């Protein structure tokens, strides 16, 4: 676990071709939470528009079709992560241009920039850093089952599927707790959280024997805060990624869970032959899975209502979600984090 | 997934210092199941004795204190895997001697022989192969949730803890099915199974995002047999390794489970602060975890009674285990695999 990038006010460009905003969660979260000064978003499908056309509540930036149209920047961040986490060749020209202009390039992909010969040569030639935040440190080990010993109240976000808002909800709660004057810290477990915080172990890229251990290490390291908000990953019912979810759940030994869901989602994204089970069963699934290692409780729900146009529709969906889980719930971005924060602190 | 070693009748030495036989499961399984001709076991704590003093039902070999006492061999296998999977320096002299005498060396550790400069130089100098069976191939990817499509009946062994007999039970059932003339295959997921079969993905060493995918790949590859016996790993309640268990369970999409347990085990081995939950809850835990991805059922139980001296005591423990699970159960090594095989086929 090492600092991976300077999370400071750099002039940053976010690559999000054909995915902005709804399939570009890294880009959107950097716009929302990071200290970076975002000078442009690259999305050839939305060139000419601006971030605020889609997301009025984050920092604004022009959307352009490629690095050629960006005047000056310090860093290009790959702001999308396709299923499988590979580098797509249609991004190559932008990365090449960035490096030729002396910009650092940062990615959270499974395939590493540093393994690409052309990029390595260009980076050497132009004095740039290539940072792969998903490349875990070499010194990870197995969990000792000790995260439960920390003084902090550990709160983990868990989900019904991928891309429902676990990072966002953990981040919103963390920031809201700090605004209230609470002594809180954020434990990042994925590329986006790591980019925002500037440190962390990329749990989905860790050797599976060390999954829990890599989370435990971070919880022990930050355990002297009063509250730790741990970013969860994937879902306990996910056909491909449940190992990551389960390793985090046993490794972090959380005291409380916040269950995240997206309104209207009925099947696992990308695995449409697999249905999302009834919502109340998730409470039972997560609690009973955790229990032999460390008892925990779903204390609140977070519903992502981005697909619902009206606040009225969103409110009604939140009502149904609250009833299904039988705990306080809201859409933290749409209606504010207060209700859920109360349930958590 | 590639062939990793010639699983043939080599003159093999098994290193198992201070762990033979009860904490040397790789060594014991090679003695029991592999085609290797084992010429010696290295265990300085038991030098002068023989394998049959401890295990009368596997191939016999003398136990000696080090490679110096071995006359001739083709291959040295590290037959123990400590928690964490590191290489212990007290084994170095034996590996060095083996290489100097032209023997290949094979290990299933997390730390790779091929990363050790001294071993690499000696291997080059003496024309030996260093094989790390726990080094996964580079081309693994995420699961597509498709293992359920194979024609084969997929049977997975699952456990209450590590080292309770999941590999052994899968292997016994596979061999017994073949003896009956059934068209069966074995899917190895750990270092021991891979050493015996000569191929396979070491699931506990795979990137956690690819855990399920690396199992799915093997099931799809062997799916044209009538029965696939998949070696499970660790346990759904294990504080460090549950990610591996869960990735295999969702990746293999098994039709049937055999729940393995060791008589008398009350806490998680190496994590004595964590109790083994009541046995019937494991049936519910495994079935309900698997269900959203692929429905499955615990159809039989396997009880490891090695700690019980008398057959009478073992029979009584098996009776209690059968009652707790409410499915047919036995100790397959002690009483034969038939009862459980019937329940599975």
UniProtKB/TrEMBL annotation, chains A, B:
D-glutamate N-acetyltransferase-like C-terminal domain residues: 142-339
Domain of life according to the entry: Archaea
InterPro entries xrefs: DgcN-like, DgcN-like_C, DgcN-like_N, P-loop_NTPase
Domain D-glutamate N-acetyltransferase-like N-terminal: 45-136
Descriptive protein name: DUF1611 domain-containing protein
Organism of provenance: Halococcus hamelinensis 100A6
Organismal lineage: Archaea, Methanobacteriati, Methanobacteriota, Stenosarchaea group, Halobacteria
